[in-house]
Amino acid sequence: MSPKPVFLKARGPSVTPGEPLRAPRRTLSEVFADTGAEAAAAGFVLAQLGHGEAPVLWIQERLAAREGGQPSLAGLGLRRSFLTTQLSRPADVLAAAEEGLRCRSLAAVVAEIRGNPAVLDFTAMKRLALRAEATGVSCWLIRQGATADLSAARDRWRIATLPSAPNPDDARAPGDPRWRADLFRSRDRRPGQWVVRHDRAEDRLDLVAAVPDGAVADRAREAGQRALG
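User: That's the sequence. What structure does it adopt?
Assistant: C-alpha cells below.
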C-alpha cells in the first residue's frame, strides 16, 4: 500500500489534526541545502510562503547569491511582493534580518548565508527567534554548504533535490517541483522525512512520508525520468 499523501496549505495557520506536519508558526526556521541543492532550498522556502499581499524581505550574502542565484517567483507561480538585497558580510545579513523582523507589515524575512561564519552563533540566532516570535513575522535562515551546529532555530530542515512531478499536459515538460525534506530537529513537532511536491494550482505542499529504504524517492525519480523520457 502506498503512503497516504498529506496536504499542507502553505499559507494557512493550521492543518487538520493528526497530520505529521502543520504550517510553520511565526518563528525562526533553519534550512540546510545539500551540495547542489541551494536553489531547491530556496524553492522550498518560497513554497512555504505561498501567495499573499504582505511583502517578503529576502536578504542574501553575496557569496550565497553567486551559488544559488536570486529567488524566482515565476518558477513556482507565486503572487507576492518581494524586497531583495545583497550584502557582503554575514554580520550585515544578520543585522538586516533582525531589523526587518521589527516590521510587522512583512510576511517573512528570509536570509541566505554560506558556510559557518563565527558571527552566526547561538546568541545571534536566539535574537532572530525571539524577534520573530515577538512581532509575528516568520524568519527563514537558509544555510548553504554548512554543518548543523548549535542553533536556536525552532525547526531545522535538510533539503535535497528530486525530479519534478510529471506534467499532465506535456510528458516532455517538467511538472510541479519536488524535494526530499528532512525535519531533523523541532521544538514542538515530530521529526521525519517526506517527499514534498508544491501544487502550484492549489498553492499547497503535498507531502508523502519517505520510507527508510528510499523507495518513495526512487519511484519519484523514475516517474520524473519517464516524464522527461
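The mean pLDDT is 78.
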